[in-house]
Amino acid sequence: MIMLLKSINYGFFGSGKRIKYMKPGIDLIYKLNGKIDEGINVFELSPILLSVGTLIHEAHRTIYPEDREIAINIKPFQKGSFEINILLCAQDILHQFLDFVKSDTGQNISLVLAYLGYTSQFSGVNLIQLISFVKGKLKSIEPLESGEFRHNSDDNTSITVVKEVNALYQNCNVQQNIYNSLGRPLELPNVDSIDSFIKHDEESTKITHKKRHCFINKSIFDVRIMYY
User: Fold this and answer.
1) Which residue, of 4, 31, 124, 160, has the greatest Cβ tally within 10 A?
2) Helix, strand, coil percent content, the chain, rounded in steps of 5
C-alpha cells in the first residue's frame, strides 16, 4: 500500500474553469509484502491505515507543537498493489506554493518519520529500536547534561536517545499506534514484512520491518518488541 501525506485544493483560471492542484508535501510509501494477491480483509486493513495516520499526526504534535497542522491523505491504490502512498503537508492554504520540503515544517515531518523508525534518515536510536531494547522492562530514565536521555533496563543495560525519541516513547498514544501500524500488520498470516520510505528516494530512506519483530501489547503503557 502507498500512503500519501498531502492535500488537494482547487483554483480558478480566467475562464472560470475549476482546476485541481496539490500542495507540496512529502510522500511516504508504506508497503505490505507477502502473499496478499487476494487482498486483505477490510476490517483488518482499516484500523492499520487509521493508526498510521494517527501515529504520524500525534508524533508531529508531540515533538513540534508550534508547527502548522499537517494533513495526511492517502493516494488511490494501484490495481493489484498494497503500496500505500501517504502525502504529508501543512494544512495552511496560504503556504501552498512555498517550497514545503525545504520549509521548517517539511524538514520537521521528515525528522518525525525518522525518529519513529519509518525511514532510515536518522543515525541515532529511533523509537522502534528503543522499544526493542527496553522490551517492556524499563527501570528508569535519566536526563543527561547533553540534553539526551539514558533509558536503563531491568537487566542493568542502558541505551541513550535524543530528547525527541524520549518524548515519543513517553506518549502512550504514540506507543499504542506504533503497535497498531507496524505490529498488527505483521500478525496477519500473509504479511511477511513492511517497507517504508520516501517516494523517489527509496535507496537512502528505505527501512524494512520483518516478521521476526513481534510486538506485544499488554496496555497502552507497555508496548514492546520481542525477537525470536
Assistant:
1) 4
2) 30, 35, 35
What residues contact residue 42 under an 8 Å CB cut-off, 6+ apart?
none
Q: Residue 72 is placed in which grid cell?
A: 495526511
Burial of 153 (0-12, 13-18, 19+ CB in 10 A): middle
Distances (CA, A) of 171 to 95, 128, 181, 223: 30, 13, 15, 11
Condensed to tens digits (0 to 9), the pLDDT of residues 43-91 reads: 888 898 899 999 999 999 999 998 888 888 877 655 545 567 776 666 5
Instruction: Tell me the three state secondary structure of residue 131.
Output: helix
One-letter amino acid at 119 equals T
* Count, residues in the chain: 228
Q: pTM to 2 decimals?
A: 0.75
Phi and psi angles of residue 44, each rounded to the nearest 5 degrees, phi first: -90, -35
C-alpha grid cell, residue 102: 525545504
